Amino acid sequence: MYQKLLQKALAGHRLVRSEYRELLALEKPAELAALFQAAYQLKLRTVGNRVRLRGLIEVANYCAKNCCYCGIRRDNHAIRRYQLSAAEILEAAVLADRFGYGSVVLQAGEREDDEWVGFITEVVRRIKADSSGRLGITLSLGEQREAVYRQWFEAGAHRYLLRIESSVPELYRRIHPPDHDYRRRLECLRSLRRVGYQVGTGTMSDLPGQTLDDLASDIAFFRELDVDMIGMGPYIPHPDTPLGAAHPDFDAEKKLTLALKMIAVTRLALLDVNIAATTALQTLAADGRERGLLAGANVIMPNVGEVAHRKDYLLYTNKPGLDENAAVSRGKLEASLHAIGEEIAYEDWGDSPHFAARRRAERESVPS
Ligand code: SAH
Ligand code: SF4
Q1: Element (H, E) at 136
Q2: Is the CB of 202 under 6 A from ligand 2?
Q3: Mean pLDDT for back-to-back runs of 10 residues, the chain (368 residues)
Q4: Buried-exposed string 157-177: b where 16+ CB fall within 10 A, e elsewhere
Q5: Does ligand 2 have an atom closer than 6 angstroms to the CB of 70?
Q6: Do β-strands 233-234 and 204-205 pair in parallel, antiparallel, or remain unpaired?
Q7: Model confidence, pTM
Q8: Residues 6 or more apart whose Cβ sits within 8 Å of residue 347
Q9: Atom 11 in ligand 1: which residue has the minimum CA distance?
């Protein structure tokens, strides 16, 4: 039965929500191998075998929010807070440029105050100017007013990642404090699209109490929103958080398999979007990101920041590569990607074909 679904997807027919659910339920090794292989085939056809790299810069770990799963939430007093200087960020961006990564991601905890908004605006402008426009810039800085998203877009950022975390409002409510609002997050995703960003979203898998139906809904949500990029990952408990303290135990292989299934079914459902093989996969297995690529992902975000602050940016525990500088991890990554038959898209912003197709359709629908 599941073979029929895989054939259906490979023949170019769209799967529906109940079929996502059916594929997510596969467990036997042979079934999983067939699922991952089909998703990989579809990836080769839609986005190819060239991995897109983005240099990740973890700009600051100050956060005004208190998400119940996250190690840098406001009420975690066990960590040292830091913010990189503009010079440190520019240095990391120059390194990404020199490595030929083509683009950078600026990620941080969430702040909406004017000082922060102005700082990011200036940093984005300087990265653009210093790289003579070569570097693409993705931001992952949480919920903001539309005017702020516009200001950062006009400064030169062109992609934005804002995970919905869970598309199921009831589950979203259970993993956030009462003042974190699902509807605002959704409204922010719509603002980002209105402003003109390529929009990325995503969810965590294996959250406490999450069902396969919830995960199938997440994939349906990605399609409904018609996003350009997906950054998903396994939820990994952090002991200094309310959710992590309440549910500390986990089975790494089971978590990894579920995360890989989400990647594969998302590829089969969304076809030509960019899908990241996130660092959280690598936390669960040394070759987690490579397995993500073989299950349908096509983006990797190697850290290009100084190692000095990495141990302070622990959203979850056992994050890998804390002592490894960008040059070392670059060498290892290149070797491991070549070993699995992937190539690297150097000197390229690496926008998703989905975005280009959407832009074409929008242009053609404008009456002349
Ligand atoms: N503050 C911004 C960006 C930094 S957080 C934002 O929230 O959008 C980036 C992502 O880290 C979040 O979207 C969340 O999905 C992920 N994350 C946080 N804690 C996690 C955990 N314990 N396990 C796995 N992913 C986690
Ligand atoms: Fe802050 Fe993002 Fe962590 Fe939530 S997930 S506490 S917004 S850094």
Answers
A1: strand 136-140
A2: no
A3: 96 96 98 98 96 96 98 97 97 94 97 98 98 96 98 98 98 98 98 97 98 98 97 97 96 97 98 96 95 97 88 86 81 91 89 88 77
A4: bbbbbbbbbbbbeebbeebbe
A5: yes
A6: parallel
A7: 0.96
A8: 100, 102, 134
A9: 315
